[in-house]
Amino acid sequence: MPFRRNIKTSAILVLLCLFAQAFSGCKEGKVPEKPLVQETPARPPGCQGCHTEVRLDPSHDLACTACHQGNPEGATQEQAHADLISHPAHPDQMQKTCGTCHASQVAQTATSLHFTAAKEVNSVRTGFGAQAPLGSLAEIPIRETIASPLDLADDLLRRRCLRCHVYNSGDGYPETVRGTGCAACHLAYTNGKMSGHGFSKSPPDSQCLHCHYGNFVGADYYGRFEHDFNQEYRTPYRTDTTETRPYGVEFHQLAPDIHQQKGMACIDCHSGAELMGGHGAAKGSPPAITCLGCHGWRKGQPLPLNNLQIEADRLVLITRLTGKKLVVPQPVHPAHRQYEKKAHCTVCHSQWSFNDQGTHLLRTDNPDHPAWSRLSVQGSREVEEQLDNPADQAPSLRDKITGTPSPSLWLKGYELRRWESPLIGIGPDNMLHIFRPILDLHLSMVDANKKVIFDNVGMEPRQQRYLPYTPHTVGKAGAFYTERLKPNLPIETKP
Predict the structure, then answer these.
(1) How many CA atoms lie within 13 Å of 305's alpha carbon, on the beta-carbon side?
(2) Cα distances (Å, whole numbers) of residue 326 to 162, 227, 271
(3) Helix or strand or coil: residue 36?
(4) 286: preceding bond cis by omega (within 30 degrees)
């Protein structure tokens, strides 16, 4: 027993000696070689000291401050972000940012129909009583009080409709978020986030679909037809919650356009010169893109697109994104010669078309949530969040141009959503076209006291609700194409 006790005592003494040696430097005023707490290394100077993930493309390898301003020498976030421009490509900023290098493109873009949405805005406003056209969506009046159908339509446009245009960064769904202004097309976004800081001269279709989703031209190119809002009309009916709704509303997968199936992207037909410069509107602008411009081309005629070339007397298109070569087929069926001046090509060749009839929109200051529970899918994240959580806040919607919130919600529903039986009629050029009820709009308004201010106000009688459009659902003409033509063509009388 004494032997074991001596062993224990010796071990304790050894440990005490080692412990004393470890701290002997401190007693003598020396600093240990390795401090107990490691200091955090200072971040590298400049913007990318914090934004390490940013990678620029070679054409835009500029200092961050060239577009965003701010102070790269700032020691804190507040100092570094002083006078920061977070969205330099926004329409309010693009002239002094993008325009410093791309002056002509920015000047042309700012007045293009694709940028101003003037055609769509004026079509709606004229139908509700506007006497003069506007030059841009930014000119839509802000209505503090609603006293007329036009006031109601203006409020609808600013707070519900224009989230798909360049003043707004999109809705809150995974594939509807994008940049503003020039960045809406040229800066890549995926799954709701900017996926890179490299600007693309040739945007892929995913960029186009950030705006051209839902039942609008673009979605149909990929064979997508948006479901009805009411769950009881969903086919196939789903009982689980696995659907991610990347574009806000689930969609049926129908036949894509034959051009898409062959590998063509949107920009293969719709070049930047057409989209951002307008077509046929001014001297020197490119001609309008038509089916017969390519498929009716004849040797000796000018090429309608700059990605076309002639090889062995055949017209060949080179896809802009992949470089794939596609021979452009020429019409050989005798029906083309018989009807090409009487009917637009899509009358026979569209596989299906959008036919959403009776679009009803209600502005309400006090939504009856139980009544709208079955229509909680609205195609607007901002609206849906308030329908799902009615007690969290008073109803409001942001102005999609200024970002300023205003009280009341705009709720939406349809009488009928169908894609079969394309509607055919005579267009302004006296030719047959596919029509859709684009302006079959019905507006209502109920105030906070549930008093009906406007009830089911539609377009003025002089305004045509059904308008011709070009469905991007092209394919081989069906066996019964004449059933689309003959009943709708004017009866020819012999002299």
Answers:
(1) 24
(2) 37, 34, 17
(3) coil
(4) no
- Supply 187's token pair: 């800066």
Q: 381, 435, 436, 315: which is closest to 305 by C-alpha?
A: 315
Q: Structure tokens of 182?
A: 């020039």
Q: Is the separation of the CB atoms in 363 and 376 below 8 Å?
A: no
| Domain of 461, in residue numbers | 348-380+395-485
- Of 421, 269, 438, 424, the closest CA to residue 343 belongs to 424
Which pLDDT score, from 0 to 100, does residue 421 have? 79
Mean pLDDT throughout 214-237? 85
What is the reported pLDDT for 15?
46
- Give start and end residues of each alpha helix (H) in 315-391: 334-339, 346-349, 381-388
Q: Establish if 234 belongs to a structural domain.
A: no
Domain assignment present for 105? no
Residues sharing a CB contact under 8 Å with residue 297, sequence separation 6 or more, in sequence order: 303, 304, 315, 328, 330
Query: How many separate domains does the chain show?
Result: 1
Mean pLDDT of the chain: 86
How much is the pLDDT for 282?
Answer: 44
pLDDT band at 372 (very low <50, low <70, confident <90, very high): confident
Residue 362 lies in a domain: yes
Give the integer Cα–Cα distance in Å for 406 and 394: 10
Residues 6+ apart with CB under 8 A from 399: 142, 158, 159, 405, 406
Name every residue whose Cβ is closer than 8 Å to that of residue 9 and which is 6 or more positions away in sequence.
none
pLDDT bucket at 277, cuts 50 / 70 / 90: confident
- Confidence tier at 9 by pLDDT (50, 70, 90): very low
Q: Are 316 and 308 in contact (CB under 8 A)?
A: yes
Residue 471 lies in a domain: yes
